[in-house]
Write a structure and sequence with these properties.
Chain lengths: 164, 324, 424
Amino acid sequence: MQLPDAEATFRELAEKVRGAVTRETALVGIHTGGAWLAERLREDLGLSGPLGTLDVSFYRDDFDKIGLHRDVKRTAIPFDVAGRDILLVDDVLYTGRTIRAALNELFDYGRPARVRLAALIDRGGRELPIAAEFIGAEVALAPGQSVELLKDAKGKLSLQLHHD
Amino acid sequence: MKREPEAPMSNNPQLDAEGQLRHLLTIEGLPAPILTQILDTADSFVSVTEREVKKVPLLRGKTVFNLFFEPSTRTRTTFEIAAKRLSADVINLNVSTSSQTKGETLLDTVANLSAMHADMFVVRHAQSGAPHLIARHVAPEIHVINAGDGRHAHPTQALLDMYTIRHYKKDFRALRVAIVGDVLHSRVARSQIHALTTLGVPEVRVIAPGTLLPSQVEHLGVHVYHDMAQGLKDVDVLLMLRLQNERMQGALLPSPQEYFKNYGLTPEKLALARPDAIVMHPGPMNRGVEIDSAVADGHQSVILPQVTFGIAVRMAVMSILAGN
Amino acid sequence: MKIHIKNGRLVDPKHGVDAVRDLYIAAGKIVGNDHAPEGFHANRVINASGLVVCPGFIDLSARLREPGFEYKATLESEMVAAVAGGITSLACPPDTDPPLDEPGLVEMLKHRARNLNQAHVYPIGALTQGLNGQRLTEMAELRDAGCVAFSQAEIPVADHSVLLRALQYAATFGFKVWLRPQDLGLGRDGVAHDGEVATRLGLAAIPACAETIAVSTILLLAREAGCGVHLCRISSAEAVDMIRGAKARGMAITCDVSANHVHLSEMDIGYFDSNAHLMPPLRSLRDRDGLRTGLADGIIDAVCSDHTPVDEDAKQVPFGEAEAGATGLELLLPLTLKWGRESGVALARTLAKITTEPARILGLDAGHLAPGATADVCVFDPEAWWKVEPRALRSQGKNTPFLGMELQGKVRHTLVAGHLVYEA
């Protein structure tokens, strides 16, 4: 199967997000791909609102099965979440479990006014009632496949397909 | 003579078949990547402890037993806070005051608590090796954390010390570290020495009178000094040890005064170390015996940050074990 | 009962015999080796081809735990274990409860042992009353009751003047005093050798000088008193050197080593294996090598099992709280053979360490196979491997640092005074 070009998909997503966010909107990227995207969005759209990153390892629902993630990143929310308009950014939206974990973590920082979701790729297969406001592209993948967002040294994004 | 594969020396009782941490009993024999993983994970928990809601749901539904056969409010409290911030249920048992005095054996106590569906035991015991004994006898899904056993080990204290050192000094591979005081009776010192050498500290010194050093301590990879002026020269990190009251009289030391004069850390002696040297102490401190108040409360002291980091480090250890 | 043991490799260290020869036994005695006496008709023929036929072993230190510690082991269980290990005579230290400090206790032990009709038991009497290191026991009475020597077991005499008098008194009657050398203060509260392992594991330590200082004291006092002394279970290389010197000066001194210490060192404690909690403690590799050399060149006269059955409850506790000791009766032969093989010592000289030599120390006419000797005989397979595991041990004590290991040398038949008391 053919994956879409990552840079083009990102431009698509950025255009959808533009106009829906204000200077007050905080961007929060989910480690690792989502954090890159949030940073790019903030830069490319010339936003001045705060930027945060989430590592949802401590909130995952599969801890009992697979244990703690080997390489936990630091969650950094350098702003007051209470009453804030937040745009959550992730690379691939699939079961919705990561977003559930991210929402839980976010709420442990305070009660935001609104949370919306932007995802570069929506591959379907949701297991929870979660939807994204902004999608770069929809991609149909077989259950044994997964897609990973990569970033090279110059910051260029690309997508890679994996088979289990 | 053929050795069986299960012979005691042939495998590390802390690691499972995949080399993952199953229990934390001692720092000795743990590979550097595991120590680094614990410190890195602790880093993430520091940000949790700084925010509004200081809890994460990682250990929800799990039960942690604080099994203290030797009283220690301080250490027990930090483990309790760590477990609660991971959303575990915590049961505190001061066994020194209950069943052990009724003649129940250590293993009976543990078997009884295991039957109450414990997921983790945090063990403090006056006998070296007690946590190893417990770890050998618990069901495979139960994890044991050594919270201090006899003179043997206090791995979480050493890990929080390493976290503190890394926080202030960044790179272990360029440091000179001195451990000062009663190494002979100190489980903290033994764990610190193993952690420092494993993480690549090129020069670890111990400074103490001959009566407070175990024999062949240099085999652990340390340089021995009896003189503070020589031992503290160019040191980046000073790890002070607690001197317990019962050691201060009798044949080990003539008096607390003489000890303080020779080995107590005063501003004058601290000035011999590097100007940016940090001073640490596992607590509780004996001011005026091993450390002068001017140093303990001075700008080079990082004794209070140690306590804060201690909670994050224990959260890291508990969550890594519970997930393995 | 007349027994003919045929086609075996007969090893009799005392008489320098190591050859395929038959052994003939009648009325509890050896009646012939090589040639059958006139008119000998065996009731039982044992085919010992491929097996070694040698004197039954003599163990200089076996705790049978009676009286007082029957929950750890009983005379019945341990006497069975002894003959299963090929041991036909054993010396028992006096640290029973109460200690063997009264003739009645000794007579009772001898009587109980005799009724079991297995190995011969030689009690070592207490040197001081209650082993308290203060008042002497009635040694002459104890000798009449059956004691073959006098000892303080594991409890050193603190006061040198008491020890000197005890030695002088024993010398008066020509009694031998057996002492396990350990300084009281230096050995107090320690559970492991003062070395790298105790330092690493944070275990309270006993320095090697706790032993050497006591050896030195005992040698000086023994010379002063003119008393024959046997040093029990030495554990350090330096003690071997001191004894070497004393022997060179012509002192009447003998010593033994535990089979455990011939093979193990502090390293075998591993991760707090309480089965390796022994007394004296397992020392450094250098010490172990010194013991092995001392054994090979004859400075150490004999190997003992240091049999100390400990109940499971007393071992399943943290190392420092665990009771010291290991079961040993059934390991004496394989561990001694292992040392001999590894050290290139001939079989006869190897077996002398558990036959001829301990007989000499005990002053017994035993440990040899000359016609007329009591027929205490062991027939064993020197090649057979067996695994040390609880169910393989007849002793009530299942505690040994060798658990899980495979050892070579298995007893097939044991005869005590011409009676076949064990067969496998």
